[in-house]
Batch of 4 targets.
Target 1
Amino acid sequence: MHGCTRRAFMKGGALSLLGLGAGLGGVPRFLVRAAYAQGAGPRPKVLIAVFQRGAVDGLSMVVPHGDPDYYPARGGIAIARPTAGASDATLDLDGFFGLHPAMAPLQPLWDARRLAVVHACGSPDTSRSHFDAQDYMESGTPGVKSTPDGWLARGLQAAPRPSPSPFRAVAMGSRLPRVLRGEAGAVAMNSIADFDVKSDAGQAMSGGVNTRRGFESMYEGGVRDLLYGTGRETFEAVKMLRSVSPEGLAPANGAHYPRGRFGDSLRQIAQLIRAEVGLEVAFADTGGWDTHAAQGAERGQLANRLTDFAQGLAALDRDLGDRMADVVVLTMSEFGRTVRENGNRGTDHGHATAMMVLGGPVRGGKVYGRWPGLRREQLFEGRDLAVTTDFRDLFAEVARRHLAVPATAPLFPGFAGKAAGYPGVLV
Amino acid sequence: MRRPSRGLMLVLMAGGLAACSSVAPPAATPRLEPPPRYRVTLARSTLTADQQIVHVLGRLGYGARPGEVERLRAEGLSAWIERQLAPGRISDEAVEQALGAYPVLPLTAAELYRDYPPARPQDVQRFQAGQMTPQEIREVFPPNRRPAVITAQLQAAKLTRAVLSERQLEEVMVDFWLNHFNVYALKGPVRWMVPDYERRALRPHALGRFRDLVVATAQHPAMLYYLDNWLSTRDDFVLPPSRGGRKLGLNENYARELMELHTLGVDGGYTQQDVIEVARCFTGWTIDRPQQGGEFLFRPVTHDRGEKRVLGTVIPAGGGQDDGLAVIDLLVRHPSTARFISTKLVRRFVSDEPPPALVERAARTFRSTGGDIRAVLVTIFSAPEFISAEAQHAKVKTPLEVVASAARVLGVRLESPEEATQGRAAVMGGGAVLARQVAALGEPLYEAQAPTGHPDVAEAWVSASALLSRMNFALALAHNRLPGARVELAPFLEGVDRRQPAQVLDRLLAVVLRGQVSPDTRRVLGAQLENPEIVRATADDRGPRNTDVEKLTALVLGSPEFQRR
């Protein structure tokens, strides 16, 4: 990343006109909104990408209960067949697939046809390394490590805005993930409330403006490298955030986020969307999916992770309410897990997994993708769920149809995917 | 629920099969013999003598302390590096005394389990049901006896060492190996095992032989538990009927990470079949009662006695515990391992983009010395690439490095729990307060969940959130808002007229950055001297006309230059 150029900052753009560029907050929210409206439209489409790091067991998350080979392969970790009225069994979706019971909060979204699943989805690369497979899924170039940027960053770059919001792309967390690194610029943020330079007493914005200005000036220098570029983006974002104070927005419609990092991330993404800061791409990740031992079945370790996951997504949907008409949530994980239970009531690293697409523009209520089957001869390398949908076909559909990334833009270099190959999850 | 099912645990832990088991001797002795003396001749460099000293202090350690550049100038840089390569000969009394505040450090996992036991299930239940007052909870589960104390003390000790230790290179290397052979303290009982893991598996070999590190980590309960190898059995192993009669089998987790992350590297030339074969070799390498702090144990009955083929080499049937050692020997001698370890070391000490020629030379040293880490380091430190102008300031500091180097450059005094009066410092000392800052900057020590450990490249650490946290840390430290980490700026300003802000700035730049500051930053900081927050032009009821030294110090600590080493 050394020496790469960064997004030029809106000098002379809408923000400067409002005086935000001069380092003072306090501009009324409607003015800020109007400023971004010039570039991004009053209600920009939003994509929220969610990464389940550690390789989620797609066969437990979206259970192929109708496959005759599922229960024999899974032994003690299989999720019980759907039973009418039973809450501790697979929740049937279409007679063949079903949701893990811990995913019950998402059932209403499925019923409302706003949740779709793409099963047997994954990478053409066969790496079973967490690190490499995550890297490939974020760079969008399986097998190629030298790709400098992430696919979401390339998507943003391909659809430039005349005066982009500093919050056009946000990743929740203290590190900027690979998927958003690149020329387009993106902000990583741990928490909205702490996103500021704190004054002497440790309080955000109680007289810290000038000190912030001092730090800011040092990062305005002419050297265009990672440190300076990030510094400039940071201070633009700080100033805008202080002018709209999204942290004051309580969850709407009775939404209740699960406690913990993932729920906090989604809650704050919803705050940024509702505060209309110009957010177009948000990223959140969630860990604990690497269930090599004692992953559990209807209850247990994996069920607990899925509860957090499903409750978080359901709360986000409820919180955003009508706004979900413009929002798509895309979930992903670097690979799936072995079809057979391993020696420790867990699963080892596998190949394909299930990904989910949620939101107003989604043609939901359907499991997409060709099911490759679980018989030994149908498995990848005789052990793993085979990939029948290249993750790039799914991601490309979402980027092109939802974010209007032009078809000519090199979203996935080296990949000749065409619209005909899209799963068709979006309206 | 991270734990395996109760039935399985009972069998694997309770020694039900102990009759046919053997307990191995400890994997490592606590102290090695004094090593042979290694000679270091620095390459010619375009850097000035002082620039070289600052560079070396920032690479082999956590930056300069007040007066240290002058001391190294007198001693000679090569001589100092050679001393660092033999840390056992460096007296480190200040640290040893300070570490006395952290009683968890010398204890075994079993002792820690005894002294810092988990909450009793019945208390947890009553607490969750709201049937206990906070006072009752404190009585049955005293805060100073809780398991969380262990990691808190470890983190505090790590900062104490980074800031105070004379054995700077050893601390850097222990941190390097801790991330290389990462374990996650919050997985199950690993918490009780980590102090022993660092003390016995990593520290004695930090500058020793690579093979010893691999063996010591492979046989340590912390690693066996973290990467699940303690659960892995031959594929056809069936528990006795009295234990449920369930079939167990292989777990690939450790075998894969051993090759991908510890030795060969992900492109090192192994296949999925190699992962399975290596996992078979390590069956039976387990832990004797992991939940009570037990030791490494080889359990023959769960071991796969068949023939294996790893990377094309046949490991004959019946090798027992030695199968795992045979695999380790194969892996540490493999050329991919020499290249992978050398790449990581060059990345740590030279640049995020390791110069290929230097990696090749370091790998050659690795191979020719059978993995002598000291010898590889000598190759790196003697290289023109190491002491070059390109390498100078090429690394962005990790959170640990930024916090430790700021504390060192300002000569921060870390108070002991007895000296400190406030909050966390009064319980755990100033080191714990600094450790919390490191976590806030994104690097929770001993708590990296993924087996890759904390990263060592700039792009992992440079983000909007991280930069703001760094600036807030600079403000807090300079204003003495971190209890237990005492800063005294007055001594740095001796002979400076505080009414002359330009003089103050010049002195601070000399102290914190040794004057190595870009014209842009210099100009911007100069412009701050007009800022009414920084300087009060006239006397008022707060005293005479004066410069806000604390704020100016914070700005210098928050400068782009100080984020680099």
Note: Confidence is low (pLDDT under 50) at residues 1-30 of chain B.
Target 2
Amino acid sequence: MKPISLDVVQIKNVFNSLKSTTVKALSKRESLLKEYQELQLRVSRFSHIEQQLKNIQDKLDRESTSPKSQIGLWEWDLATNASTWNDLLIAQYGAEKSKVGTNFYSFWMDSIYPADKKEVMANQNKILNLEIDSVEQEYRIIRANDKSIRYVKTLTIGEKDSNGQVIRLVGSSVDISETKKADEKINALKLFYESILNNMPNKILIFNAASELIYYNESMLASQPFWEKYMFQSLYDIVVAEVENQVIVEHLISHIRQAVKTRTTVKFNETLVLGSKPTELLNNILPFYTAGVLEYIIVSGVDITELNLAQLDLVKKNHELVKVNSELDNFVYRVSHDLRAPLLSIKGLISLINFADINPTTTEYIKLIESSATRMDNSIQDILEYSRNSRLEVKLERINIKELVHEIFNDIKFSTHTQIELEYQTDGADTIITDKFRMSTLLKNMSGNAIKYKSDLPESFIKFHLSHKGKTISMRIIDNGIGISKASLPRVFDMFYRGSSASVGTGLGLYICKEIMQRLNGKIKLKSKPGLGSEFEILLPVNKLSS
Amino acid sequence: MKYILIDDDPIINLVHKRILQKVADAAPIETFISGVKALEYFKTTAPIPQIVFLDINMPEMNGFEFLDQLIKDKNIKKEGLSIYILTSSLNNKDREKAKHYPILKGYLGKPLNVAAVESLKGTFSAPIG
């Protein structure tokens, strides 16, 4: 038997180091426990050490700042069935000394979480049966006071006599619930992020600062299974080993170098032949720095094969659409031109007739032929305008309304030989930004109506008032024509609506105006009184030219 | 001075011829039913002041192709020519395209009428004469 004094000196040394150690921090508590466990192992070989142990216990009890972070100690003498335990152990189990009484053993048994009890008992029996000398284990207990479940980490040592028989069990116990909870949280978080990474369509590889592969997700393995062989290996070793996919790895290395050199995200496209079909990948390399130091290189790839195909398809379809639209445009013009040409010949021929030579009835018939031809020509023009408005894209440009109004007015006045005055006013600029074709069609229809439905009064007029009202442009077109009856007013914007059979129009003019305003995001308002005239107000948004 | 009508439709040519005859200047009128024939004419004619009415939509050679050929041909003296588009086209593209031909004096819609011709005549200049 070795002299006890030596061990007592050791105990003192350890104790001194224990004393100087704060026991608040989790990690420190662990190291404390470890040191103490070493100590326990050493002292367990001697039977009369209780006093020293008690001293340590007392000191520890007194030192305690938080009961939870302390080591509970106990021992059980097999011969006498006497057991001792420190206050910390009782506190760990949420009990009071008085209530536990002398029978700590049965209290302890009752406190073990039922599902863990079997294993704890089995381990204890192994010591008693001399199968093992000691056991370190974790199990759950149910705390007496608040019935909460706590995790404890324990060490149990069997002390043997000179015959090798177990005479005593000594043990320590630390409440590790907080560590356990933190671990569980970290594990849950880890699982959470891993499941995100694994289930996302992106293919991910992560390398550490030494270019060693430290992570790949399932998506990456599905397309490039070779990475699985190289966990924790350096890219520079992988490039040598992976002969079959050397080019892929070489590319990756050169892009990673660039990313690290420039400290920025590098994007690159890559076409891989995986299986039989080529796959287009859009890769992203992010060098990840913490406090200016490179920590990780995150490689993330997205399969854009389908996207590219869809885009190509879209471009192709759009191209076809533009072609079809342009063909249709030409066709419509061609047809309208070919329909108009003979009509214009008819009108021209009529204009050559010398009406003095023929009788009044024939003259009347010829005038009717002319008005029918005019009407047909108007219909062709209106249908053309309708077709253009519904098909063509809105093209914004800066246009001078003053010039446009005068041009249109003079054209109509010239072709219809009508006596009518034009007045144009503006409260600001003459120019607005809008679609020229549509605006000109709209103004042509409005002016045309004012002339078609002018009254027989000698002083017919048409007034254009342009005003800029913040975000809206207002254009009022006022005439002193025959006006519109109350019954017709709500219907004049309907397709093919004509006020009376005597109306010379096609019933499309105002309908086209309404459609045009829809395309230009504008509004059209109408006030009219029979015999007094009509006032149209066009409200347009202020547009900006995209440069 | 001379009037030149270029249009593939003989009826409209007749109509325009009669209208021009009503304009009291008794200038001779030549009609062509194709741009090709009109070009041949210009190549062989002395450069006198001429007022040309040109259709756009014609088979074989359209109005703009006619203008391109005319401008390119160094044998044709253009100084005396006053060329007007006379068309039934409602296509804005045609109107816009016409703006790119400085040789054009105007863009008119069919059919001509006497008043229109009279007002045009006021703007004629006679560089050679």
Note: Confidence is low (pLDDT under 50) at residues 1-29, 43-48, 63-68 of chain A.
Target 3
Amino acid sequence: MLAFIIRRLLQAIVVMLTVALIAFTLFRFVGDPINMMVGIETTAEERAQLRQQLGLNDPIAIQFTRFVVSSARLNFGNSYQFKTPVIDLIADRFPATMELALASALFSLLIGIPMGVYTALHRRSWLSNIFLAASLIGISLPTFLIGILLIFLFPVTLGILPSFGRGDVVRLGFWTTGLLTASGLKALILPAVTLGLFQMTLIMRLVRGEMMEVLRTDYIKFARARGLTDRAVNFGHALKNTLVPVMTIAGLQLGSIIAFALITESVFQWPGMGLLFLKAVQNVDIPIMSAYLLLVAFIFVTINLIVDLLYAVVDPRIRIDAKVA
Amino acid sequence: MTSVLSVRNLTVEFPTRRGILTAIDDVSFDIGPGEVLGVVGESGAGKSITGTAVIGLIEPPGRIAGGEVLLRGQRIDNLPPEQMRRIRGKRIGMVFQDPLTSLNPLYRIGDQLVETITTHTNLSNAQARTKALSLLAEVGIPAPEMRIEAYPHQFSGGMRQRVVLALALAVEPELVIADEPTTALDVSVQAQIIALLKRLCAQHGAAVMLITHDMGVIAETADRVAVMYAGRIAEIGPVRDVIKAPLHPYTKGLMGSIPSLTGESDRLVQIPGSMPRLTAIPSGCPFHPRCPRAFVPCPTFRPELQPEAHSQVACWLYHPFPVTAEAS
Amino acid sequence: MSAQANDPVEVMLRKPSRLSVIMHSDLVYSFLHSRITIVAALVTLVIVLAAAFAPWIATQDPYDLRVLDILNSHNPPAWLKGGDPQFLLGTDDQGRDVFSTILYGSRQSIAIGVMATLFAGILGISLGLIAGYSGGTVDAIIMRAADIQSTFPAILIAMLIDGTSRALFGEQRNEQIVFWVMVLSIGLSFWVQYARTVRGSTLVEKNKDYVLAARLIGIRPGKILFRHVLPNVVGPVLVIATINLALAIITEATLSFLGLGLPSTQPSLGTLIQIGQKYLFAGEWWIAIFPGITLAALVLAVNLLGDWLRDALNPKLR
């Protein structure tokens, strides 16, 4: 078990370093950092001096190491656009994205899992067919289109629910939350549904597929042959075995949600990290781009790690290695 | 002596894209209390389907299209699902082929035992646990107090099958259906499991329907044997008779194809051709295209099981055949 | 009964023709018997053909500035009050006919989607074959790269590549480059699944006796891979390709919507929707909604075809 953890940690570090390399290359070699940072009036000597000061003439390996170390210390330099530290900009917008991501993840799980279970157990009912048709549409619509349609339906046509912004937020220490105000909660609904719809259909189809597979297994057949009640068979045995792989994939999807949040943030002008990144790409603000990259990589890698560990906790086959005759 | 299990003219059909597939057709047999009936035949002959039909686990769109299944004289094939569920486990137990996949990998075996026991009896969890421990001891699991907390993957194949037997016999069913219980096990372990099965059923007074393609197991264990071919019973009778003096040409072919360790080292007989696919069963007697003794009535008229000596056989060699032009 | 008709040699020679085999195969059977799949195929066909023949079908070339008349702008669809039958689905803020923009936009969307999928497929299959056949370090490197890349959603990767190209080439990028940059970035984000599947099949085939025999005789590895491994892989690859096509179209639309894709001078459906979003509150819903419906229909149809293909090719369900 320990060996497993150590191996996964090493893998995670390798991934992070690779991403750091890419981010560093972006940072250092795409365009000229000096030219982006200073104004037109700066003389050539001043630029050369700046270059020396920032250590841009040092060997690449040293620059890379410096980059990794300062990134680990959360120092990503200053934004080209705003001239303020990148980390401040990101920290400011982090809560907005996280709340959105968590709300939509919750939505997708709470609706997706029951729908999936229902369609697996009642394969031929009309309700199942409706769910399945809806799921097909959910998977086919791009996130932004869902957002547009929802905006068209609710704020434009029906006049309820806001179509942009986060509403009123409350500051708790370094975190700003929209969950404590009515307008904040209302503003959260459409974006959360938009972001969560794709995940919800994914989870529903996943649960359905897994559960149907599980219901075909020998141990379910044997459970029925032993006369266990339908409830015990479907929910005690089948559901538990279904949720184990589903949980891992759902966990991995959380990372996806954080990434896709940027689309939703764009549609609804939600002031999160994603919108920040988007504007950075449009304005070629490299420090923000590379910082966002590293941050997202870190989130993904961490989530993957946690999910793997969770898997080990839940599935006894991985946990207990020794086999006794 | 009323039979424990009485199957009369059972037919099971599966509607498929290409038409209706008849998996078993007009199958009839009885099993008495404490008796072991072997059901033998090649893959696809319909042996497993017969067992699944008896315990009522045929999955739709498959269905029992005709006939009856009687447990101690009471019809069970047409019971509502809840009543059938109560019979399963309590009065009919079933054991499957692969012990690795028969047990839920996420639950300890103790929990799976206790669950089965409390479903069918009024015992409390603690009482059920005690019973589970004694069951594990009975099937020969060493140190049951420790093993009861283990997960299925921590057992070897033979031990797992013992656990499966414990689960199937937990609440003392009157009939045990064993579907290829030893096929997935090592040869050395097979004998132990079969002996265990036989001993347990004798002790609990259960009747056994032993489904297998292994004639050796049948010879060791069964009292009577039914030979199935293409979804029908070709011959059924006491084990000694069927093995030593087979009546049906198919049975003769089967016996001839078993290598013998003792005595005659004749060449192994091979039955030419192969069993027909269930979507393309020949008319009349299904075995006639491969039968060395096929004659006039065989392609047209289907033979029924008729008594012959101590057995029953479905073959025109033994009964007068019809002369009227009514084909089947 | 003529003896000739039952002559075993005769029977053997009367093998069914190839066409007959295909027509009676499971694939065609399940296609013809699923109404939904037929509808989906028809929808896809209609959209693709309409896009392909856009210059002939469109009532107006919306990108020819001489044709546009600002007085025609903001017209609602023809069946609503204030609509002009010349502009079936209305016009946008510049006087462009929405129907025509949808036709040209679909062209871009489909073109990029298909090219990106092809690119991803060729890249992924090649890498998969190489990784599976070579084994060792080459295999390890390719698979590590695949692992690292698959931790990230495709859209981020596509955005990254696009952003980099933007930085490298500056804002004045030639419109031709934009098209290929999108194909490249979307294609690069999707190769992993192909590579993994093909690698798996290659590994299986590599160890089979006939491959060893072929190598002993000296047949070049390329030929072995081509003739023996590839045919085994066609089924799963096709399924991946249809799913990918849908995803590629969605990714392209999303990138364009975010302003990172095709510009408004050469818009795809995504760009059109972005333009239209501004006018939703003004009540001019048709500028965004009609391209939206077209996009949804296209992707839905492709997904349905992919679903049918997956079920039809799944050996477990046969």
Note: Chain A touches chain B at residues 217-219, 221-230, 232, 236-237, 240-241, 244, 315-317, 320, 322-325 (CB under 8 Å).
Target 4
Amino acid sequence: MKRLHFHPCGNYKTAYEDELTLFSTDFGRVCSLAGIAALFLVLPFVSPSYLLYVINMIGIYAIAAIGLNILVGYTGMISLGHGAFFGVGAYAAAVLAATLNVPFPVVVPAAGLITAGVGMIFGIPSGRLKGLYLTIATLAGQFIIEYVLVHWTEVTRGTEGITVPAASLFGLSLQGDRPFFYVIFLCLAGMLWIAVNIVRTRYGRAFIAIRDNDRAAEGMGIPVFRYKILSFGISSFYAGLAGAIWAYYMVSVTTEPFNLSLSVEYIAMVIIGGLGSIAGSIYGAVFITVLNESLRWLTDLLMNMGFVTQSGLNMAPLREFAFGLAIVLFILFEPRGLAEIWRIIRSSFRLWPFSY
Amino acid sequence: MDFFIQLLVNGLSVGFLYGLSAMGFVMIFKSSSVLNFAHGELLALGAFLFLTLATVAQLPIAVAFLLTLTGCFVLGFLIERFFLRPLIGEPLIYVIMLTVGLAAMLRGLLLLVWGGNLRTLPDFLPAWFDVQVGLVRIQPVYMTAFIVGILFLVLFGLFFKYSAQGIYMRSVADNQRAALSLGVHVRRVFALSWGIAALVAGMSGIILGIMNGINVHDLSAVGLKVFPVVILGGLNSISGAVIAGLIIGVLEAFTGGYLSPSLRDVVPYIILVFILLVRPYGLFGLVEIERV
């Protein structure tokens, strides 16, 4: 039997394949398998309905955040339109399901593909622009998509919204939090697996090369424009898939949620989680969702306290303030995000007691 | 024809305000290459500060105005000192996201203190500002905006051309490293430009507030409308910002008047994408953009 691998006390890698492995130790592999088992077999049965709802939202946001991290963290293109792409996915799913009666297992990937197409169109400016000009172009994309969603009434029914029919998978109807938990987290696991493998193969290396120095990348024979468009496509595919699941989960789709602040929230997830780290996107999604929910809880608590109610102060804006503060503090004090904090914690355990 | 002229005048006056709001934005970009997503909140802050000083504290208008401008200047200075200075030399995304975070913080704070309702400023503009040109009546607010805008353009022009600080700012904008090595106090230049930008923003906020009333959400929307304006005008041209503001304002008014009112708000962004694809440095910006 093969001996279990533990953390080596130095760099003993002898082949490039060693650098590419997903789990450098068997301990990590066993732990993550145990974690996945606990996630799927224990969590949905022990958590109350509200907690399960929050967990599901984390799962949906995590899928979209992974996509954004491929674009921002790996390819180095800042997109302020991710919330709109999420909306395109949600609307594509709603229109396919409600108007054209397409079944659920077809709708979700189809919505992803439609969004990928839209994302690629809005990625075309990246052929000529980079840095802040590209950021502004994606900002414009956000507003244009929002406008189309509201005003293309023949398809999106405008502000009225669309009610999505209940999803069914292999004859089983999906309703309630628990079935959706399985759908969301199976998708997340699949998309996570794809993302991790995109990043460590030639596509990911091309993205990283473009991020680090696009002219050098061009010189090394990477068709920069094609890869940038590909990155936009992949990232929007993730957003669209997440949006489609969101549409089924939320039952009704309206235009309001897909505004600029949703895009900002996604960027915040990616930054707080850690740019250029797939696991970081998940940490970021957890952080932002938990922050949002706990702030909602806190403001409700404050609103019901005697002296606040009497003074007539509206505590709701406190959420926005705390959200901004979290972003600012992370950027000032740990710009590499939660993934970096987690790495520091791990390595300090590993090196203990000789910490240097 | 009357309709056409009325639209044109409306567009020009709204556009002038866009240009005025964009001035502070360009100011920051020109010296420190920071895209300020919190600009709309700075506008709102100036307007609310003025409102409080003028109505709650009952100060004379002139005193309130000067105090507001001082307050905005100090605030801009502090923002630079505590939030942006640690990020000098960091990647673009952190700088952009920091201003986005700042925008959320300021918006939350403003809503917490002043609430989300529409507030109106007292009417204090002298009546003789009400000008009738032919068939078109120009409201006092627009007249004020026009005067203030021209005043600031001239002041900025003189400042950048003749004063030592202005020349330092231009040198920093041109080449930060060369400016450093020639003994320009770059950090002071950044702090000063944030102060001045916040001051200009506060003033534009007051004028916008007189015209439309003060509301945090409306003013932060104006802060986003600044992007098409500055891109069209060129990111580092102050007079370009004013001209582009006029163009965007007129186009908005015509789309609103002739095509459809709902298209009005999205037209600037469609123009923005077009400009970015055709002429990313804008009408008057430095032709320095790097093609990939």
Note: Residues 2-32 of chain B form the longest helix (31 residues).
